[in-house]
Structure formats: structure tokens, C-alpha cells
Design goal:
single chain, about 240 residues, alpha/beta, TIM Barrel, 10 helices, about 40% helix, globular, binds 2-phosphoglycolic acid
Length: about 240
Amino acid sequence: MRKLAAGNWKMNGTRASLSEVKAINAELDDTDPAVVICPPVSLLIPACDIGGKIGIGAQDCHMASSGAHTGDISANQIADTGATYVIIGHSERRTDHGETSDMIKAKAQAAHKAGLIAIVCIGETLAEREAGETLNVLGQQMSGSIPDVATSQNTVIAYEPIWAIGTGLVPTLDQIDEAHRFMRAELLTTLGADAQNISLLYGGSVKGSNADDIFSVADVDGALVGGASLSAHDFVPIIKALSRA
Ligand code: PGA
């Protein structure tokens, strides 16, 4: 199983922010887990040019490989920058752009075809959690969004409860444990033994101060981090916590 610390910069960062990628790189050594930063598309090429231990990813891709889709970027084009990952189906894409699980599956397939590792995001709303629907929602999102050909080499799954994103609210460790155990069991049923090696990330208000606790949960293999991935000061302690886990 691969440990992975992934940073999602969302719509933040300009060229000046590349100094943070360099600063994070400078703090990493061979004992650290895999690290990927997903900056805005405008920074993919210069971020890849920094090199070092950090992998670079995009935050979305189109399902088609090329064509008349103004403002979109294809998985091939992302791969052409040197990036190796792409986040697919983040709840902000599902909400802001009306992305459905069918669309997300098609995007994940496009990512795989281009040789990218897809970080597929799933997660429940607060209303769904309060209605006791969390595992049903996760199950539906998984079966709807994850391609049948997903493997531990081309797919990472991120569990991101929507109510925990950017709010400072974090589920209890028992709630994270329940969700991750469920995800692992579902993947083992649908994909077979290789699912044991698929990285399952937790995302939503991960910080240096709560990372050790979150990484102590059995089926948590890393984190997808938003706000705290924007600076070396905040992201490096999370990476080091994953190293220790
Ligand atoms: P957050 O975002 O760490 O700022 O809560 C997580 C995410 O949306 O991936």
C-alpha cells in the first residue's frame, strides 16, 4: 500500500507560489512518503520543471482527448505537461459544475488512457450523514465513479466529507474508520485482491495538529489536503506525520 500526501491548491497560486513547491521539496528525504501537489493549470509546467521528489497533478480533466471544448483541458494535455496525477470528481466540481458520477467515471477513464493516476473523490453532505445515509452515498459514488479497470497503479480514492472541507470540522476517528473500512471492503469486492494496495486518502480540514491522529486510522493511507497544502510551513508537518505513521 502506498502512502500518499496530496495537496489540492484549488484556484489559488501564481508563479510566486512556486517557491512553496521548492521549499516543500527541500524538506523531503528518502524516508518520506510520495507527495503530489495539484496546482492550478497555469502552474503545471513550471511546477513540473522544479523536479525533485514531488509529483505534480491537475485538478480536473475533460473526458474527451481533444476537440471543441472551450476552456477545458484533456488528460493528454495534462500528461504532456509532465504531470502524473489528476484529481477527478472533487465535490467542488460536482457542486459548481454539476458533475455526475457518470461524468466522473468517463474522466477517470480518460485519465487512465493518458497514463495519469486518477485521484477520485467521494464524500457525503452533512444532511446525508445526519440522515444515516453516509455509507449508501459512498457506495453509490464508488460504483458510479470508479472505472472497472481501476488498479492500485492508476487509481487513488479520496474520502472527503463535504461538510469537513475548508470548515475546520473533522469527523471523529471512528467515523473516518467506518468510511475507510467500508471503502476498502467495497473495492475488494469489485476489484479483487489488488484493492488492498489502493491508496485511500482522507480529506477535509487536515492540518499538522490533527494529522497524526487521522493517520493512525487503519485504512487511511494518506491525505488530500486543501488549505494546509498552500505553504511548506503547513504542508510539511502533515507529510512528516504520514512518514511516522
Ligand atoms: P481542506 O480541503 O483541506 O481545505 O479542507 C480539502 C479538499 O477539498 O481537498
